[in-house]
Amino acid sequence: MREIRAIGDPVLRTPAEPVEGFDRELRKLIDDMFRAMYAVNGVGLAGPQIGVSRRLFVYDISGRKGHLINPVLTVDDPDPILDEEGCLSVPDRQTGQPLYAPVARAAGVTVEGLDRLERPVRITARGSLARCFQHETDHLDGKLYVDVLPKNEARKILHKA
Ligand SMILES: [Zn+2]
Question: How far apart are CA 131 and CA 58, in angstroms?
C-alpha cells in the first residue's frame, strides 16, 4: 500500500510533471491510487499525495468515479460556492483524520485530459464533483486547500495539522 504524504512533505509543494508513458506501470499506479484512496475513505487522490510527482488523479464522489491524466481545468461558472472541504494530506496531528474548513470554489468547471489508454476525456461538472476537480488539479500545481482559505482560517487549520 502506498503511503499518503502529509503537509510538510516537499512533494506536495512541487508542481507535478506530465505523465508520458501510457503503459502497464501507469495502469498499476492508477489501481494503487484507488486502493490508497479507498483505504482511508477518500473521495479524491492526486499523484503527489503518494509521492508520485506526475499529473494525474483519481476520484470517486457522489456516484461519479474515474481518473484523469494530464488534466486541464477550465472554469465555466466562477460563482463562488462555500462548502466544507478536507484533504487526506492535511490531517489533524492528533487524530490523523482530515481537517475540514469551508472553502470557496467555482460552481462549474470542465476538465479535459486523457484516460489510462490515452483516450481523450472531457467532463463538465458542478457541485461536489466540480469542487473535487479543483482540489485535485491544485495538488498537481503544488497547491493545498489551505492556500485558498482566508488567512485566519488557514492559520486555525495549520495549527492542528
Ligand atoms: Zn487533497
Answer: 14
Residue 17 annotated as catalytic: no
Instruction: Check residue 78 and give its pLDDT.
Output: 98
Which residue in 17, 25, 136, 153 is the catalytic one? 136
Radius of gyration of the chain (CA): 15
Q: Could you tell me whether strands 56-61 and 44-46 are parallel, antiparallel, or unpaired per DSSP bridges?
A: antiparallel
% of the chain with per-residue pLDDT over 90: 99
Tallying the residues shown for the chain, one arrives at 161
As a whole number, the mean pLDDT across the chain is 97
Domain boundaries, the chain: 10-160
Q: Give the right CATH number for 10-160 from 6.10.250.3280, 3.90.45.10, 3.40.50.300, 3.55.40.20.
A: 3.90.45.10
**144 CA to centre of ligand 1 in angstroms:** 7
Residue 1 clears pLDDT 90, i.e. is over it:
no
Alpha carbon of 131 to ligand 1 centroid (Å): 11
How is residue 129 written as a grid cell? 464533483
